[in-house]
Amino acid sequence: MISPEQVQTIIQERLANAEVKVVGDGQHFEAIIVSPDFAGKNKVKQHQMVYGVLQDELASETIHALSLKTFTPEAWQATGQTA
Question: Where do transmembrane segments lie in this chain (predicted)?
Fold first, then answer.
């Protein structure tokens, strides 16, 4: 089983400049990711970027399910939430 902290670390290491928060139960996870690298990309492309950095973990079913919420820093700031 993999912890939410481990998933968070993997994303942060492989997706430079990302602020990441992950919660989950060891198989099912929800991630909020804020990255300037998402600028100019639609949600599908943003999610593909994240799935790409987790390709091995998803293929091996270490991560069974992953829900993503992705934002550019500007879009995140507009939500009024804090990281």
Answer: none
Domain 4-79 annotated CATH 3.30.300.90: yes
pTM passes above 0.85: yes
Question: In the chain, what are the domain boundaries?
Answer: 4-79
53: its two tokens: 């950095």
d(CA 73, CA 28): 25
User: What letters, b where the CB count within 10 A reaches 16 and e where it falls short, cover 7-36?
Assistant: bbebbbeebeebebebebeeeebebbbbbe
